DNA sequence: ATGAAAGCGCTAACAC
DNA sequence: GTGTTAGCGCTTTCAT
């Protein structure tokens, strides 16, 4: 691989001139441009970004820390982030934390050593001092990390309220709230939204906590459904809703006739299920894209106009709730 | 951030000694170790891997190029790769190619500039010279790129045969093969396997080509199902199968009673569908893990014992086919 | 408008 | 055992 000195020599100029040419800064004659460009072409020269990083302290990697990319919530986010990163010349490094603080810390450390320019993080539970005294920018997605850290997310409480009210409007009287792990911001907020919706209403509710995993959800939902008269489920994520659908199916409970279900997130999974899942959709792509844009601004030293972006959630009425009720 | 010189100064030794300490090479006294270790501690020093890379020409990033991380086939692979990368001290860079050669080339170029140690690639259609004359290692997953490039994948033809025969054994007489894009290795192989299975059998078959997308599959399947007597579908991926399930549902066709479906891949999606999808499962995690291991060996200059690894596919009989038939 | 040279933080001869 | 020093490939003053 040719280096900048080779180019300079071949072009008959100094490395400084080549560098200026490369970075479009400082004066440089048309002649020099021509001859340098030719030399670069001929040698098939590509500047080493490692050397550049070392010299400038600038980096072009973005660290993306998510609990588990296998959870259908995250690929869409990751995709958006990657897309905007690409257009700005950044590259994204994928990290799965499994919600473990140690893994998060590990990534934070090693990636800083590798000159990552910043982080986008869907953090685990939020007692996270290791995030606050980083000396590179960071933005949170989905889950709040610390008041000082910019975030883009949806209004989970409001979304959950809307989702639950759809169940109510559709005539559900015995509603199960399959809530996510307590202590996890979005799960807590969605639960609050659920309570907002049912408060004061003459309906029976049941609340069960469930990790964000399909199998757990299926099991828990089956147990609850077996023992009773549930006619509506508000699930805190699409995956949980999918588990509930499976449970209902195995018990011979018809969806949406006997049981209506609304999920949360609006992942691909929701639309690919049969019947397709009514869900409170977050605009995952937008969240990811905005977070990436935000981080890049931070990296490049620009001021943020907003440090907290709320994306509205939107109820997508599909086949697991009865549309006649509308 | 402290650098190696700061550490050396504080420890009262030379940078060379510190470097030796850091890399565990060359002789170094216990005394020196102690004092250096203390200095590192005190300064909270972390070596710059960028400087190290520049100096050694070694890198610790692995580029992962996939068509689209949103396709449920890839997150599981990515997860496995990330897991083994982590244990060997590597970090994975995520790239979505959208099956576009230009994007692949772009990533290949920029990542090499950023000192990526190697690539794992699920390539698009295989007229891919840009892969063959790379000067860093590369391994293919799922799709063959070139005879010279190591690959880990499953035996798609055999898997498809087994999947199709399950339909046959279950009494299907009118089978639709929802095949993937022709020209795409695995899709072609699976189609071959389908043909192997039905050849000479007294059954009616129909073959339709379909991009690996849910909506396309749903539409195509609906069209075909409307016009006739299909009682079995062999789909070339779980996503395609999911589309077919949705189509059947919307037409009021019962699965598996009136229509049996088998998918391919064994993604999470397959198990999360209702009814859960009978599918020819690839061990995605294993594929990813082996590919990563292979690449790291290559990076570290070790010989490969095998350059082509075939992972057996396994038929997972679930709820979209009738088990009584067994 | 261009070049010389120092420096980014580390490694690896080579000398002692 | 340890230190000196010359790179690695680039950027960036500072001269000219």
Q: Approximately what portion of the residues of chain A adopt beta-strand conformation?
A: 15-25%
At the first level of CATH, the class of the largest domain in chain A is Alpha Beta
What CATH calls the topology of the largest domain in chain A is Rossmann fold
Tell me, rounded to a whole number, the average pLDDT of chain A.
Answer: 94
- Termini separation of chain A comes to 66 Å
Number of domains of chain A: 3
The CATH architecture of the largest domain in chain A: 3-Layer(aba) Sandwich
What's the gyration radius of chain A in Å?
Answer: 25 Å
Largest sheet of chain A: 6 strands, parallel
Oligomer: homodimer
Strand order of the largest sheet of chain A: 2-1-3-4-5-11
Helix content of chain A: 40-55%
How many strand segments of chain A?
12
Relevant CATH superfamily of the largest domain in chain A? Response regulator
**Count of DSSP helices of chain A?**
13
From the helix content, strand content and strand pairing of chain A, which structural class follows?
alpha/beta
Q: SSE string of chain A, helix = H, strand = E?
A: HHHHEHEHEHEEHEHEHEHEHEHEE
**Inertia-based shape of chain A:** elongated
Low-pLDDT segments of chain A: none
